[in-house]
Sequence to fold (205 residues):
Amino acid sequence: MRLLILIPIIHTEQDMGSFSEQVKQAYVQKYGLAKWEQHLEVINGLWSSIDQLIGGLALPYASIRLYQDGLPECGREEELVREVAGLGSKNHQLLLDLVQKGATLMGTESPGLLTQELTLLSTVLGALPKSEQEIAAPAIDEGRKLLAKRDQYIAQRINNTLCAGEIGLLFMGLAHSVEAHLQPDIQVKHLLPSLSEIGIPPQLV
Fold:
């Protein structure tokens, strides 16, 4: 049997890299500074809950594989995680902690598809503050197609590398739908069946 534990994540400012300031400005422009500050509090609360829940699982770390949203299959996975963790990303700090305990870090995504998505994000953010209607339809359509391709790649990566008797931890953003593409012998469990269980209002995600 193969087990995959799905862990829902919300990307932090540190995860956004060079786009962090643009993302913040776009969020503040749409919702206001107070909502942005609440959003940051929500993210911190989520990661505290995830850290506590994983710590309570008594995992067999030598049999754990870590799959991460946005982490390309490139041969430099741990270097990239250390870099982002050093910027303060709670997500990547947790990955490093698990690696130090014996878990195996896996390149998870297609570098090519990630590059396409970064290009799309750059185009969308660069178009602001134009009317959302001017950029929404084509960007949303292209974004959905890219997300679907990424989900298929991620699932295939898990299908091919998660071995019998192992447990995968998949740290994945809320917009993804990887589960539908997994092979039927992979048992899936959700670390958090819903964000509302830990008191996170959907409007602040």
Summary: The chain has a mean pLDDT of 85. The chain has six helices and five strands. The longest helix spans residues 132-161.
